[in-house]
Structures are given as structure tokens and as C-alpha cells.
Amino acid sequence: MAIIGKNLETACELLIAGGVVAIPTETVYGLAGNALSEEAVDKIYTTKNRPKNNPLIVHISDINYLQEYVKSIPLAAVKLSEKFWPGPLTMLLPKGSPVIDGVTAGLPNVAVRMPAHPLTLELLNMLPFPLAAPSANPYGYISPTTARHVNKQLGDKIKYILDGGPCREGIESTIVGFDDEMAVIYRKGVITPDDIKKVTGSVKFNQNPEHKHITSGMSPSHYSPKTSVCLTGDINNLNITLPSENIGLLTFKNTFPITSRRKQIALSPKGDLAEAAKNLYEALHKLDSMHLDLIIAEYVPDEGIGIAINDRLIRAAHKIIAEENHINKK
Ligand code: TXA
Ligand code: MG
User: Fold this and answer.
1) Is the CB of 90 under 6 A from ligand 1?
2) What residues sit around ligand 2, an ion, with C-beta below 5 angstroms?
3) In the CATH scheme, what architecture does the domain 3-205 have?
4) Cα 143 to averaged position of ligand 2 atoms, centre (Å)
5) Which residues contact 207 (CB under 8 A, 6 or more apart)?
6) Cβ–ligand 1 contact at 25 (below 6 Å)
7) Does 104 contact ligand 1 (Cβ within 6 A)?
8) Phi-psi domain of 130 (left: phi exceeds 0; alpha: psi -120 through 50; beta: other)
9) How far is the CA of 222 from the centre of ligand 1 (A)?
10) Is the CB of 120 under 6 A from ligand 1?
11) 247 and 256 in contact (C-beta within 8 Å)?
12) Nearest CA to 238 among 125, 322, 126?
């Protein structure tokens, strides 16, 4: 198992030696390595068992570093970085020459973000290079929002997990690219389309199916527990045959009589979407460790942060019932 601690020197030494270290961010834990080293970037892919055609996000601690790694910055991107950095926003920008192909998987853009976690910002300030970091989970599995989640999934493959406590936001950053000055959303997140539109004046969703394959956050099956997940809009009117009584429920705020209370998790009993986002992955990790025959999950209201939560639920689900009735297809 890995060592879990708060020692920035230890993390620094391992990263400078070309190793990988799990780091906290406000969204999810990342598996970090030197973004300018082919060797370190290679280790990230192997540790996660991630296909090499799936590029990584570069994490920086200061907006001034942005121009070192990108060729040009649209005005819309400047405005978004001023508003949301440090924070859960990743921007796709034309890659500059110091960025290695391993990071971008040969694509013309590089993904950059400034995370809002004091420990990781301090770590970045101590290092002479930026950090490439995908979420610290085996490829395709649920993202980690605590050091314990990382240790359970990757503890036998890495030496050190920098413990920054439970992640404040709980789902991955919103990814935005640019079509000239038009902001294009590639992955939904805590920063909503409306938040972006307020800054840039307009926003659209990426519709390019080719890119959807490249961006794993866009692939139909992702963030998945090992237990089957059935997603529905109405738990009271489920029209499926349950495999047994050994089922779990993942709901927005209510509990239901179809299984024992012990096997039910309400993401936010008071009905708060930000709290639901924060609790989503912890709930999936927990239910997945209970040896259930099935997890039935319920959509959250499809508004604000709920849009990104539903996006993750759809990708986690193996079976979806009556999707059209509950989600505005975007
Ligand atoms: O909140 C987050 O963004 C977390 C924390 C650790 O920062 N990171 C994260 O990384 O979610 P990852 O690798 O699990 O997801 C990044 C997504 C992937 O779907 C990847 O395909 C896409 O970003 N991506 C990265 N670089 C890209 C590029 N150059 N062009 C297009 N898509 C890119
Ligand atoms: Mg990921």
C-alpha cells in the first residue's frame, strides 16, 4: 500500500526523480507526474492502465505560466481564467512547443487548468515543472475523492498519496475549448454552461463524434462501479424484475421502502445539488464495496450542477430506464 501523508518534500522528491504521486484537487484526486518528462508521463499511463490516445491535463499554479505552454490565448479564455482560476475549469488551447506529445496524445491542443487546492498549489510552486494529472483511478473506474479511495484502487502501484482531505467539489473539471472566440463545452462539470455564458456571452456543446472518442470523459461508459448500475427517473414505478433483495439505492434526497435503509444513500437529504456532487463518487465507492447484486440510481434534477451529475450517472450506468423523460438531451 502507498504511504498517505501531507509531506510536500516527499512528494517533491518523488516527482523530481521522475515518479508519480497522487495529489488532491478540489474536484477529484489526480495521479501526477512531471508534464515535461516522457518517462514520468509514460508512468502515469501505465499506472492507470490508460490507453495512450487519451491525453492528460497539465496543472499550473500561476496564470503567467499559461503562455509558456500554449501558442495563443483567445480573449474568451483570458476572461474565463480570470473568473474561474484557480478552480474546476480546464481549457483546451493550441499546444506550445515545450509540451510533449505524450501529454496531448499527438493532438493540436493541450488541456490546462489551475486547481484550487492549497496543498497542490504549494506543491506546484515548489516544482520546476507543471504536473500532468488524470484522475487517480484505474482507467474506466470511479474517480477518487479521498486519499483512501486512491489507496484502495492504486495503492499497490504508487508510493505516496498527498492527503488533502475529501475533495470539495467532487466531480471532474468542466472542459472548455474554443471555436475562435466561441466557448465549446467538451465535458460538463461544476462550472455550468450558464456560468460560462455569463463570462463569454455565448457557449455551445461539442458535437464532433470523433472527439467524443478521444475524450474519455465523453465516452459512453466511464466512471463505472463493478456492480451493475440501473439508472431511472422514478424508483417507485420501476418496471424491471429485481435480481434479488440484495440491491442498493443511490438517490438524490429521499429513501424508498424497496430495500433496507442500510443499502441506501441519499446524495443530499436537504436537496442541495452541490452537496450531491461532492458525495457522488464516495457513494458509488461505498455501494460498490457492499457486494450488492444491483445498484439502482436515480437522476438528480437536471439543472445547474445537476446536469454534470446526471452526465456522470449516465456514464456509470449499465442500464438506463426512461432517460428521455428526465433529461434534456444536450
Ligand atoms: O478535475 C479534473 O479535471 C481532474 C483533476 C485531477 O484535475 N482530472 C481529470 O483528468 O479529470 P482525466 O484525465 O481523468 O480527464 C481529462 C479529460 C479526458 O477525458 C481527456 O481525454 C481530456 O480531458 N483531454 C485532455 N487533454 C486533452 C486534449 N489535448 N484534447 C482533448 N481532450 C483532452
Ligand atoms: Mg478520469
Assistant:
1) yes
2) 135
3) Alpha-Beta Complex (3.90)
4) 6
5) none
6) yes
7) yes
8) beta
9) 13
10) no
11) no
12) 322
Answer yes or no: is the C-beta of 175 below 6 A from any ligand 1 atom. Answer: yes
Closest C-alpha residue for ligand 1 atom 21: 215
Listing DSSP states for 262-327 in one string gives GGEEES-TT--HHHHHHHHHHHHHHHHTT--SEEEEEPPPSSTTHHHHHHHHHHH-SEESSHHHH-
Strand pairing category for 109-113 and 89-94: antiparallel
Ligand that comes closest to the CA of residue 215: 1
Q: Which ligand is nearest to the CA of 206?
A: 1
pLDDT digits (tens, 9 = 90+) for 83-114: 999 999 999 999 999 999 999 999 999 999 99
Say if ligand 1 is within 6 A of residue 206 CB.
Answer: no
273-288 helix and 147-154 helix, angle to the nearest 10 degrees: 30
Nearest CA to ligand 1 atom 10: 134
Q: Model pTM?
A: 0.95
For the chain, give the mean pLDDT. Answer: 93
Q: Which residue's CA is the closest to the ligand 1 atom numbered 6? A: 30
Q: Do residues 8 and 122 lie in contact, with contact meaning Cβ atoms separated by under 8 Å?
A: yes
Task: State the average pLDDT over residues 311-327.
Answer: 74
Report the separation in Å between the CA atom of 51 and the middle of ligand 2, taken as the mean of its atom positions.
Answer: 12
CATH homologous superfamily for the domain 229-327: Threonylcarbamoyl-AMP synthase, C-terminal domain (3.40.50.11030)
Q: Which residues pair with 204 in a beta bridge?
A: 184
**Which grid cell sits at 315?**
456514464
Q: Where are the domains of the chain?
A: 3-205, 229-327
Q: How confident is the model at residue 316 (pLDDT cuts 50, 70, 90)?
A: very high
Give pLDDT tens digits for 9-32: 999 999 999 999 999 999 999 999
Between 108-112, 294-298, 326-330, the lowest mean confidence (pLDDT) is in 326-330
Q: What is the pLDDT of residue 323?
A: 47
110 lines ligand 1 (CB under 6 A): yes
